[in-house]
Design brief:
- The two termini are about 75 Å apart.
- This protein is α+β, with helices and mostly antiparallel strands.
- The chain contains eleven helices and five strands.
- Strands 1-2-3-5-4 form a five-stranded mixed β-sheet, with helices on one face.
- Helix 4 packs antiparallel against helix 5 and helix 7 packs antiparallel against helix 8.
- It folds into two domains: about 160 residues, no CATH class; about 220 residues, Histidine kinase-like ATPase, C-terminal domain (Heat Shock Protein 90, 2-Layer Sandwich), CATH 3.30.565.10.
């Protein structure tokens, strides 16, 4: 048993309207064919009318079957007095078979409708040898070719609309993905900026407050409180600068410019003051070739790497030397190296979270560089005659086509 698909609601309306119109014309005695026919009785025209109206129920759900049955019904209609509504509903079946059928079926119907129209025109001209044969060919074209070509145009338009809609949805999806990635990247940038600007000051405050609480000495306590105050004020200023950057319009003065390599001296001097209580001694060896300008993203990344490395030495390094070394030339790569004593006796310390190394690694990755951090053992010149050290090394390509890694 074959389960026919349920007809569409509009198809039911079309079939009912077509059948009612055909019955009305039949009752009025209006027919399309004159002369002798194999089935000349008027009632014979009702059978093709009913069959074609029935195929309208399948025009959307089973267009191929509807076209095959409808074609046979129209051929029978030509042998009866005929009904114009039967032909009109058949043209709709041809149209629907192209619009709702498979792409291969639509191409075949278009091809065969063209071939039938041309063959009918030529055949009737050869048979009748009268100009009236062109009218027959035109009628065949109106019944077969015209609905087929209309269906092709409608189908192409719908496919173009579907393609445009799909492209718009893909564009919207890509835009949403880009927006989400931009939000994530901006949040990561803000996290690195906040950490690098504030962690140094808070670490110094934690270290010196620990020293002030653990040592019962007025001079030491006063020095510690002085350093705490200086770092508190500096940290507050940095926080205000970051808030100014995050606001669309704060009404305040423009935020301070991003730090540059020229500020490394002051940065090391501040670290020297903050690390005095822990027995840390800081030195800066700037061997950069400054004949050509250093790209701003590279300079900012190098500054932040040195800043975070110095913060980490205040938190974790043993008493001893902390050396900052910069080398390289424009057009090549800048190498930033920070070494400090590792292991041994440690003074007052601040807790660490490990996010500093992650931030430094991200900054270097954004510029396409190389980042290394970890303990080393040796006594050569690179280690300053020391035993075990902790070394941070970043190689930053000095190119000007990268986005800032603030």
């Amino acid at each position: 048993m074959v389960n026919l698909p349920r007809p569409h609601r509009d198809d039911v309306f079309i079939a009912a309207a077509g059948l009612a119109g055909g019955l009305l014309l039949w009752s009025l005695g209006l027919h399309t064919n004159d002369g002798l026919r194999p089935f000349a009785v008027p009632e014979a025209a009702l059978a093709p009318l009913v069959v074609v109206s029935g195929t309208e129920l399948l025009r959307r759900s089973a267009p191929r079957a509807a076209l095959m049955v409808g074609t046979l019904a129209v051929l029978v209609d030509l042998m009866t007095p005929g009904n114009i509504v039967t032909l009109l509903m058949f043209t709709d079946i041809v149209y629907a078979s192209v619009v709702y059928g498979t792409p291969a079926s639509a191409r075949r119907i278009h091809y065969w409708s063209t071939l039938v129209t041309v063959a009918a025109t030529i055949g009737f001209l050869a048979w009748l040898r009268k100009p009236e044969a062109l009218q027959i060919g035109l009628l065949v074209g109106l019944v077969t070719f015209a609905p087929a070509i209309t269906g092709v145009l409608v189908r192409d338009h719908r496919q173009a609309a579907d393609t445009a809609r799909l492209r718009a949805e893909q564009t919207a999806l890509l835009a949403e993905m880009d927006r989400a990635q931009a939000v994530v990247a901006e949040r990561a940038r803000m996290a690195r900026e906040l950490h690098d600007m504030v962690a140094n000051h808070l670490s110094a405050i934690a270290i010196h407050s620990t020293a002030a609480l653990s040592l019962d000495d007025d001079v030491t306590t006063r020095k510690a409180l002085t350093v705490i105050r200086e770092n508190s004020v500096a940290g507050l200023a940095e926080m205000r600068r970051l808030i100014g950057l995050l606001r669309d319009s704060s009404g305040d003065a423009a935020p301070a410019a991003a730090p540059t390599l020229d500020g490394l001296g002051a940065l090391v001097a501040q670290a020297r003051t903050n690390g005095e209580a822990s027995g840390l001694r800081f030195t800066l060896d700037d061997a950069l070739d400054r004949q050509h300008p250093i790209p701003a993203p590279v300079a900012l990344a190098a500054y932040r790497i040195v800043q975070e490395s110095l913060t980490n030495t205040l938190k974790h390094a043993a008493a001893g030397d902390v050396a900052v070394h910069l080398s390289g030339a424009a057009g090549d790569a800048m190498t930033v190296t920070v070494t400090s004593s590792y292991g041994g006796e440690r003074g007052p310390r601040a807790p660490g979270s490990g996010t500093g190394l992650v931030g430094m690694r991200e900054r270097v990755a954004l510029l396409g560089g190389v980042f290394e951090a970890g303990p080393e053992t040796g006594s050569g010149p690179d280690h300053g005659g020391r035993g075990e050290i902790w070394r941070v090394r970043a190689v930053l390509p000095m190119v000007d086509d990268k986005e800032p890694s603030a």
